[in-house]
Amino acid sequence: MEWREVSGNWLWIPPQPTAIIHFLGGAFVAAAPNITYKPLLEALGKRGYLIIATPFINTFDHRAIAQEVLVALDQALYYLESRVTLKRLPIYGLGHSMGCKVHLLINSLYEVERQGNIFMAFNNYSARRSIPFLEQVMAVSPTLASMNRMEFVPSPEETFDLIDRYYPVERNLLVKFRKDDIDQTRPLHDVLMRHFPKLTSVQILPGTHTTPMAQDIPWQPGTNFSAFDAIGQFVKQEFTRDLRQLQDIILMWLNPLAAQRSQPRR
Questions:
Q1: Distance CA 97, CA 190 (A)
Q2: Which of 30, 54, 152, 199 has its CA 20 to 30 A from that of 94?
């Protein structure tokens, strides 16, 4: 099975899909989600989930990004209507980092139906903190001093306000990684728990902010197994283990009964 590009989206279509996952990646890596998130998305696709991964280019206007992503998604769903029975397929949102914010804006600003949303390593920092070179640019070029006032639209504060007032999706899974210094899952959790305390859950997993992008490292030891080979194997095992734990948690949340049946007996 291969990815196919449709109206700016990347689709992974299993033979008999059980649900749709709409995926949005993080800033600067969201432009090619079928590559940067390939192992994670294909693992979900092989379990029967139809994947719609919508690329986007990061700009200061996140509201416009949300609108463009929603238009692209609608085009993908229109394409699928003549090829897959979609009427009874629930749609879940899956986002990583900035992709979480875009999902939250889509659901808060537009009337869309979602069975639930999964937010991995949510990030909602200001432009000044999100763009490392912004302060350096302002210092070097006084003519760009006005950039000091530039902020994402909506701002972090406005984003939380929109979620608090309009976000309607009751079932939510928040995933936080232990070694992640830019994660903002806690404030998002606080907002969602005010409205959906029974259906909002948090999972804290081993890994880093980039764990959802972990790739299968094709490490082949040399003829004489060396210390360097041992390090390579260890790194591969660490990445693989963290990614598999993430996959298992997502699959369990999506379909608890099916996930339990797939567990080996002890």
A1: 17
A2: 152
The Cα–Cα gap between 149 and 88 comes to: 47
Concatenated DSSP letters for 165-216?
HH-----EEEEEEEE-TT--HHHHHHHHHHH-TTTEEEEEEEEETTGGG---
Tell the residue number behind the tokens 């194997």, with chain if given.
233
Domains and their CATH numbers in the chain: 4-217 (3.40.50.1820)
Q: What is the pLDDT of residues 107-157, one digit of tens each?
A: 999 999 999 999 999 999 887 776 654 455 445 555 545 555 678 999 999
Any bridge partners for residue 119, and if so which? 95, 174
Query: What one-letter code names the amino acid at 241?
Result: R
Work out the angle between the directed axes of helices 38-45 and 227-254 (0-180°, nearest 10): 40
